[in-house]
From TrEMBL:
GO molecular function: DNA binding
UniProt name for this protein: DeoR/GlpR family DNA-binding transcription regulator
Matches recorded under Gene3D superfamilies: Winged helix-like DNA-binding domain superfamily/Winged helix DNA-binding domain
Cited Pfam families: DeoRC (PF00455), HTH_DeoR (PF08220)
Domain HTH deoR-type: residue ranges: 3-58
SMART domains to which the protein is assigned, alphabetical: DeoRC, HTH_DEOR
Keyword line: DNA-binding, Transcription, Transcription regulation
SUPFAM superfamilies linked: NagB/RpiA/CoA transferase-like (SSF100950), Winged helix' DNA-binding domain (SSF46785)
């Protein structure tokens, strides 16, 4: 593959977010890491991209977003929080029942995982979260220790994300990770933004058990960037609207399915 073709593929891989991780480029391009670095250096010299920790992003002059205006693909938090709210509340309550007193957990940002917060008060948990919404909900809980990573604040989601780099995360390992998804299908758990995928993979790597919190509407679509396969999910908490075929799909992959009470 010629350098011009690789450079075109690099820019295409950035998509609407204007960012691509090194890991994604290595899987997309038939080239060595050294060759990819040289390609990125040329694009940076030409003013097309900026190399950042964990990957590269388009410059504003080539369609990239300004640093202060970072956005994620997908439904804004303010809109998503109102969708299927009753189901999300029941899922959050059921998920909180899986927590043990005094343990450390990770809660990935999302409108469903947020619903756990009122129900973990009094458990004296240590909680690592990338969500300012979740951190704010936990602040009144005097017994709950809150840990936040460093990174870029995406205002529409009120979430802190870094494309890559262990330095952005506190040294933290947890028995349980609670996370949401944009969609769940036979291909696996999906999100609509590659930056979310990179961040969630780092959380998965730090957890002993992955617990997925998704309302039943998430099983109607299977498009997006894959975060993990269904075989990497230990428990799925959903609502009574989930179809039997979705339950069968999850159980076939080895996941325990918990149906939250209304």
């Amino acid at each position: 593959m010629h350098a011009e073709e690789r450079e075109r593929l690099i820019i295409e891989a950035m998509g609407p977010t204007g960012f691509v991780s090194y890991r994604a480029l290595e899987s997309r391009l038939a080239a060595s890491p050294a060759t990819i670095r040289r390609d990125l250096s040329r694009l940076e010299d030409e003013g097309v991209i900026h190399r950042v920790r964990g990957g590269a992003r388009l410059t504003e002059s080539h369609g990239g977003k300004p640093d202060g205006g970072a956005r994620l693909a997908g439904t804004p938090f303010a809109q998503s929080i109102t969708e299927n709210l009753a189901q999300k509340r029941s899922i959050g309550r059921a998920a909180a029942e899986l927590c043990q007193h005094g343990e450390g957990i990770m809660i990935d940002g999302g409108t469903t995982t947020l619903q756990m917060c009122p129900h973990i008060d009094g458990l004296d948990l240590s909680v690592l979260t990338n969500s300012l919404h979740i951190a704010n909900a936990l602040l009144p809980q005097t017994g709950t220790q809150i840990l936040l990573p460093s990174g870029t604040l995406f205002r529409e989601q009120n979430i802190i994300l870094a494309p890559a780099g262990e330095e952005s995360m506190p040294r933290f390992h947890a028995p349980k990770l609670f996370m949401g998804a944009a969609a769940v299908g036979p291909q696996g758990v999906m999100q609509q933004d590659v930056i979310l995928v990179a961040a969630e993979r780092r959380l998965i790597d730090r957890a002993e058990q992955v617990i997925l919190l998704v309302d039943s509407s998430k099983f109607t679509s299977s498009s997006g960037a894959i975060v993990c396969g269904l075989n990497e999910v230990d428990v799925v908490v959903t609502d009574r609207g989930v179809e039997p075929r979705a339950i069968a799909m999850l159980e076939h992959a080895g996941a325990e399915v918990i149906i939250a009470d209304a």
